[in-house]
Design a protein that fits this description.
Elements: H1 2-26, H2 30-90, H3 99-118, H4 120-136, H5 139-204, H6 208-212, H7 214-243
Helix pairs in contact: 1-2, 2-4, 2-5, 3-5, 4-5, 5-7
Keywords: Calcium, Cytoplasm, Cytoskeleton
Protein name: Dystrophin-like protein
Main location: cytoplasm
Length: 249
């Protein structure tokens, strides 16, 4: 606006300079001519200074407008992306109870976190743009920019936190199931080893003569009871392990 006003007033300045030049020719005294020239020079100096300040301010405002538009575009883009990521977190399936399902969920979550990582430069760009605008704008405008930044940062932090929690829960659940599978496998191997002496004991007790020997019968009973106790302990241990998976935090 100031530059426009200066452009409108420019013809008046030129007319004033012409009049001063004409007056200098009419004024006979050198001292008067000098005074008149000094006044004209002062007017020109003030005009040039005003024009320079107006041009400089216009350039500053154009840069601020460009920065403001850039900040608006960046924040809009980031808000749309955050909304998408929040929706994905809200729609996450319940953590699976089978290894193959958990492995698929874990891969999906890792891809989700990789996408977050890829957007970090964009978040940094928004922060830098907002900080620059806050320094250049008025107090009220700077306050509004800071509110936008705080809202974005809160949503960004929440998405990062929730995604990390989800990853941790999936990893714990998968490790727990894999550990249970290992325990069951070890129990079955142990059971195979125990089965052999039990069968041997069964063969010894099949003859009529062996059943008549009370001492041997007592010994076999003791062996059988010990085998039963060992089996019970192993079963209880496996059962408790399966029912008490690792705590998810």
């Amino acid at each position: 606006k100031l530059l426009q006003d200066l452009a409108v007033k420019r013809p008046q300045l030129e007319d004033l300079v012409k009049q001063a030049d004409r007056l200098q020719g009419e004024v006979g005294e050198p001292e008067d001519q000098k005074t008149l020239q000094e006044k004209v020079d002062k007017i020109k100096e003030l005009w040039d200074a005003a024009k320079e300040k107006a041009s400089s301010r216009t350039e500053e405002l154009q840069i601020m407008l460009s920065d403001s538009q850039k900040f608006h575009e960046l924040t809009e883009e980031l808000m749309i992306w955050l909304t998408k990521m929040e929706k994905a977190l809200d729609e996450n399936e319940v953590i699976g109870t089978e290894i193959i399902i958990l492995q698929g969920q874990l891969e999906t979550q890792k891809a989700y976190i990789e996408e977050i990582e890829s957007w970090k430069p964009k978040m940094t760009e928004v922060q830098n743009s907002g900080e620059k605008l806050s320094k250049d704008f008025t107090l009220d405008d700077a306050g509004r920019i800071e509110q936008v930044m705080e809202s974005l940062m809160l949503r960004w932090t929440n998405v990062c936190s929730r995604s990390n929690v989800r990853l941790h829960e999936l990893e714990c659940a998968l490790n727990s199931l894999q550990d249970i599978d290992k325990q069951v496998h070890e129990f079955l191997l142990w059971l195979g080893k125990v089965e052999s002496p039990i069968k041997s004991l069964e063969r010894k007790t099949q003859t009529e003569e062996s059943r008549q020997d009370r001492e041997k019968v007592k010994e076999w009973q003791g062996q059988h009871q010990r085998s039963i106790l060992i089996c019970q302990k192993q079963l209880i241990s496996c059962f408790l392990h399966c029912k008490t998976p690792k705590r998810l935090v």
